[in-house]
């Protein structure tokens, strides 16, 4: 969707954030203009209207993931959901033990929340996934200890789009009496989630990755068997004491509508996006020395993460200003570090540095993809022309054996 | 990251891209940086009979600032003696390109590349 | 329906909405992303941060955006607890639960905590802090203006006292913002909470203003937004709205007060004539807030009756109105349980008019007289 009016680039960064669907915005606006009550106000209709809208939205969240509305707790976003789940559950169940297992490729919000637990005396294992990004089940089993209290694994990875086998991991957690948290911020509307069947205790959601507004998310907290969490914010006792703070009605309404649309349209939408992904994949892998990061089969159609060998990542991003993409995850792109996710897959620094995440979505068109392929072909050519590494590669020099004058 | 217009200009229209035969006796080659660090700069200078650098070429694997820094120094090098070339300081490069603090290392790399090319040439002349 | 519950939440000002709309409806980037969309979002956020900072005379780098006043208060309290393990937390007895509850939960973790009472007029007096508490206290939170009574504390004096006694001082200025001048630098306070949806901005956004002398440990971990003090993708549209709301409300404090002061005077005179008790009448109060009660009239009955006639008012704070407990603020001031139970709050706003006030007074007279008769019959 090239925005001609503002001459903005083509948006291929849906995993960083999605545009708000116009239908979502339309639903939200009345709640910031007319029905502005505080949902906690019990004494007048302003409060009631807001509360009713909040509860309707809660139903929509529950419907998308086949849960009970009473299992949905509103938060300010997936970061808060992850913090609440990890610290809240590990704290509540600390009598069972103080060992937490997670993946080295989790989102920062999970990794850093686990680190915070470490600071409080917990031990943590950050498991390296296989080179395809997936968790090896046998290795996972052998990492479990008698004092493992919590496992946190994301359903869909934000950088490489791979889908973990949540069902198998969850069953193993159940057998070992371990609380299982899943970060599903990148998964809603992309993969089917059935919490009636999935052995998951806690699940984090975000609105702004699924065409809803920023600043709102949710945490699923299982009722049967009942999972308890220690609240991380105290106050008026909103959300049955699990999460205090005035709810932003319009944002919650937006998230509800976004999840409704996701539920009703994801099947059709994913077919269309899959075709775009295949087209993009075919076009880009025609370029010499490209490597797809992460498993191609167990992956959402919205993501393609490719390393372009012998081209440096940041100069590549500069070269392709006509499209908005990210190298590594959005949250870390301010730093010069190569993506820790790709490093965890065992990718070399060079390939990690030259990786681009293309993430596509609801408003991506065929011509967007065609433009992207043509642009990449042209710019990779130009940058390789500039690259001493490419020259050496073409001369047959083994770059592994060169002694580099590191500074 | 906001780049200066000068960085963008050099990045989009890099000057003197290419290679000389590194085995020529009047060509000095400096290759600095490492792929793992995200920057590799190859700078070559060609000396005329009068001891003055008559041409310079570069190839750089790196960010826009690294490309701009090396492109800029190829312009500066032409017409200089080896001693004058060695006097080019990273601070001058950084200032000319208005590099942000996180990109200062690119100008350092360019200075290192000049020094390495000069060294290489001098060792060949002996 | 006439809305007299502006201390619970305000409507969104049209000027605020206008600034927010583009951020709700057109393509927005993640402010952390390094491309045009991301950079635009980032710039917009920094502009809003300046507006927020300007409105309370703070530096933009002191502003941390959060999702609510509750989160701001939890962030400062838990952040202090994590950074200074020997903290002794003090708070006034009239604090909002989002200050008192996190402190009470720290008591379970072994921290020393002390609730400090206010006087019968709702005022916090530093002279009432006993010597022993004063010596060991390291952190104190006293709200700038109370949400229920509207009482404005002498923050300058408390902050000065705290400084002299080496106590970190935080004030919850959520109700004060937009109604009185709030001067973070001038008052020389260490931390302050402000919120958007009480000043005609959107819900879901607030800020914690922190003096850099305070070492704060983050409450939430993640992508390291807000200088690492508050991770999570920024709520851009709301931040833009908050910035605008701060700008316009700080520019309109005088006109706002002139307007509501006049209306409140009419209201309070009528209440007096009807025999109502107006709480904290002698204290310096927000000019939009009146907290009152009638002897021998059940508050919830009156509230329901007024609601049927089209008036939205409150029976205390919105957060605690899910419970039927009497106001903890009034009880801590020593108000009789019966009187406290019947307490009702009128909080006026920008849109309130003299006609609305007169209608309200007429309706109130009718209902009070009717209920008095009923009570008389019953008695």
Describe it:
Chain A is of the alpha/beta class. Chain A contains 12 helices and 12 strands. Chain B has 126 residues and is α+β, with helices and mostly antiparallel strands. In chain B, 51% of the residues are buried. In chain C, strand 3, helix 4 and strand 4 (112-116) form a beta-alpha-beta unit. Chain C is globular. Chains in contact: A-B, A-C. Chains A and C meet through helix 1, helix 2, helix 3, helix 4 and helix 7 of A and helix 1, helix 2, helix 3, helix 4 and helix 8 of C.
What's the arrangement of secondary structure elements?
The complex is a heterotrimer of chains A (about 400), B (about 130) and C (about 375).
Chain A: E1 10-11, H1 22-33, H2 45-64, E2 72-75, H3 78-92, E3 99-103, H4 108-119, E4 123-127, H5 137-143, E5 148-154, H6 166-175, E6 179-183, E7 202-206, E8 217-221, H7 249-285, E9 290-292, E10 303-308, H8 313-319, E11 323-324, H9 340-344, H10 349-353, E12 355-359, H11 366-386, H12 388-394
Parallel strand pairs in A: 1-11, 3-4, 3-5, 5-6, 6-7
Antiparallel strand pairs in A: 2-8, 7-8, 9-10, 10-12
Chain B: H1 5-12, E1 27-34, E2 39-47, E3 53-61, H2 64-77, H3 82-86, H4 90-97, H5 104-125
Antiparallel strand pairs in B: 1-2, 2-3
Chain C: E1 2-3, H1 14-25, H2 36-55, E2 63-66, H3 69-83, E3 88-92, H4 97-108, E4 112-116, H5 131-136, E5 139-141, H6 155-164, E6 168-172, H7 184-187, E7 191-195, E8 206-210, H8 236-251, H9 253-273, E9 277-278, E10 289-293, H10 299-308, E11 311-312, H11 328-332, H12 337-341, E12 344-347, H13 354-378
Short descriptors:
heterotrimer, A: about 400 residues, alpha/beta, 7-stranded mixed sheet, 3-stranded antiparallel sheet, 12 helices, 12 strands, about 40% helix, about 15% strand, globular, C: about 375 residues, Aspartate Aminotransferase, domain 1, Aspartate Aminotransferase, domain 2, 13 helices
Query: Rg of chain C, please?
Result: 21 Å
Radius of gyration of chain A, whole Å: 22 Å
Could you give the order of the helices and strands of chain C? EHHEHEHEHEHEHEEHHEEHEHHEH
The helix fraction of chain C, in percent, is 40-55%
The name of the CATH superfamily of the largest domain in chain C reads: Type I PLP-dependent aspartate aminotransferase-like (Major domain)
- Determine the CATH topology of the largest domain in chain C: Aspartate Aminotransferase, domain 2
Work out the strand percent of chain C.
5-15%
What's the story with the biggest beta sheet of chain A? 7 strands, mixed
Oligomer: heterotrimer
Number of strands of chain A: 12
Helix/strand/pairing class of chain C, anyone? alpha/beta
> How many separate helices of chain C?
13
Terminal Cα separation of chain C, in Å?
34 Å
Mean pLDDT of chain A: 91
Question: Which sequence of SSEs, written as H and E, runs from N to C of chain A?
Answer: EHHEHEHEHEHEEEHEEHEHHEHH
The total of helices of chain A stands at 12
* Overall CATH class of the largest domain in chain C: Alpha Beta
């Amino acid at each position: 969707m090239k925005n001609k009016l503002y001459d903005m680039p083509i948006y291929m960064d849906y995993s960083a954030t999605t545009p708000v669907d116009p239908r979502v915005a339309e639903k939200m606006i009345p709640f910031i203009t007319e029905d502005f009550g505080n949902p906690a106000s019990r004494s007048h209709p302003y409060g009631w209207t807001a509360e009713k809208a909040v509860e309707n939205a809660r139903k929509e969240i529950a419907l998308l993931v086949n849960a009970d509305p009473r299992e949905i707790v509103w938060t300010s976003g997936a970061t808060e959901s992850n913090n609440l789940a990890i610290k809240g559950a590990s704290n509540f169940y600390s009598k069972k033990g103080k060992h937490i297992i997670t993946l080295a490729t989790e989102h920062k919000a999970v990794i850093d929340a686990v680190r915070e637990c470490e600071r409080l005396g917990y031990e943590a294992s950050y498991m390296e996934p296989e080179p395809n990004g997936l968790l090896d089940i046998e290795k996972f089993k052998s990492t479990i200890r008698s004092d493992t209290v919590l496992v946190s694994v994301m359903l869909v990875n934000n950088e490489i789009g791979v889908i973990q086998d949540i069902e198998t991991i969850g069953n193993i957690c159940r057998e070992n009496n371990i609380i299982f948290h899943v970060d599903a911020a990148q998964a809603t509307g992309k993969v089917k989630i059935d919490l009636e069947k999935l052995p998951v205790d806690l699940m984090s959601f975000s609105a702004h990755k699924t065409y809803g507004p920023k600043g709102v998310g949710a945490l699923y907290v299982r009722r049967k068997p009942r999972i308890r969490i220690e609240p991380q914010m105290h106050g008026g006792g909103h959300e049955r004491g699990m999460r205090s703070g005035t709810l932003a009605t319009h944002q919650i309404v937006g998230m509800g509508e976004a999840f409704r649309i996701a539920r009703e349209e994801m099947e059709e939408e994913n077919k269309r996006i899959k075709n775009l992904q295949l087209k993009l994949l075919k076009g880009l892998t025609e370029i010499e020395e490209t490597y797809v990061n992460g498993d191609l089969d167990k992956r959402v159609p919205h993501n393609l993460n490719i390393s372009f060998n012998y081209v440096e990542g940041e100069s590549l991003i500069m070269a392709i200003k006509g499209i908005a993409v990210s190298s590594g995850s959005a949250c870390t792109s301010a730093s010069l570090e190569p993506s820790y996710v790709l490093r965890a897959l065992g990718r070399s620094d060079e390939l990690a540095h030259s990786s681009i995440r293309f993430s596509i979505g609801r408003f991506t068109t065929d011509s967007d993809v065609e433009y992207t392929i043509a642009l990449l072909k042209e710019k990779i050519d130009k940058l390789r022309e500039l690259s001493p590494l490419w020259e050496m590669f073409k001369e047959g020099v083994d770059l592994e054996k060169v002694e580099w004058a590191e500074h | 990251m906001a780049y200066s217009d000068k960085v963008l200009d050099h990045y989009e229209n890099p000057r003197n891209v290419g290679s000389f035969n590194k085995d020529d006796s009047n060509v000095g080659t400096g290759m600095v940086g490492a792929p793992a660090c995200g920057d590799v700069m190859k700078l070559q200078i060609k000396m005329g009979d009068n001891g003055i650098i008559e041409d310079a070429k570069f190839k750089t694997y790196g960010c826009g600032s690294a490309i701009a820094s090396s492109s800029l120094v190829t312009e500066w090098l032409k017409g200089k003696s080896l001693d004058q070339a060695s006097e080019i300081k990273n601070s001058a490069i950084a200032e000319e390109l208005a590099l942000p603090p996180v990109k200062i290392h690119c100008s350092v790399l360019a200075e290192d590349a000049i020094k390495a090319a000069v060294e290489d040439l001098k060792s060949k002349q002996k | 329906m006439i809305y007299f519950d502006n201390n619970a939440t305000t409507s969104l000002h049209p000027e605020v909405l206008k600034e927010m709309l583009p951020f709700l409806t057109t393509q927005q980037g993640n402010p952390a992303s390094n491309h045009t969309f991301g950079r635009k979002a980032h710039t917009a956020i920094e502009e809003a941060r300046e507006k927020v900072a300007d409105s309370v005379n703070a530096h933009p780098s002191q502003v941390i955006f959060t999702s609510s006043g509750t989160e701001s208060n939890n962030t400062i309290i838990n952040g202090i607890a994590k950074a200074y393990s020997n903290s002794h937390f003090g708070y006034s007895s009239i604090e909002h639960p989002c200050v008192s509850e996190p402190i009470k939960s720290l008591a379970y973790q072994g921290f020393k905590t002390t609730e400090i009472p206010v006087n019968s007029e709702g005022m916090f007096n530093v002279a009432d802090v006993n010597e022993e508490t004063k010596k060991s206290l390291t952190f104190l939170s006293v709200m700038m203006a109370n949400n229920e009574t509207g009482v404005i504390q002498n923050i300058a004096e408390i902050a000065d006292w705290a400084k002299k006694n080496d106590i970190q001082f935080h004030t919850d200025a959520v109700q004060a913002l937009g109604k009185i001048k709030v001067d973070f630098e001038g008052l020389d306070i260490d931390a302050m909470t402000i919120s958007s949806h009480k000043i005609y901005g959107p819900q879901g956004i607030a800020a914690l203003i922190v003096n850099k002398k305070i070492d704060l440990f983050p409450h939430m971990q993640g992508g390291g937004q807000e200088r690492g003090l508050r991770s999570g993708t920024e709520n851009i549209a709301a931040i833009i709205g908050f910035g605008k709301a701060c700008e316009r409300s700080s520019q309109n404090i005088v006109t706002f007060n002139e307007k509501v002061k006049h209306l409140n005077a009419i209201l309070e005179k009528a209440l007096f004539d009807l025999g109502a008790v107006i709480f904290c009448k002698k204290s310096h109060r927000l000019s939009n807030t009146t907290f009152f009660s009638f002897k021998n009239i059940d508050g919830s009955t009156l509230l329901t009756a007024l609601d049927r006639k089209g008036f939205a008012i409150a029976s205390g704070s919105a957060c605690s109105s899910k419970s039927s407990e009497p106001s903890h603020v009034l009880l801590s001031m020593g108000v009789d349980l019966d009187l406290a139970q019947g307490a009702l709050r009128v909080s006026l706003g920008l849109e309130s008019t003299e006609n609305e006030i007169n209608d309200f007074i007429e309706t109130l007279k009718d209902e009070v007289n009717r209920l008095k008769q009923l009570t008389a019959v019953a008695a």
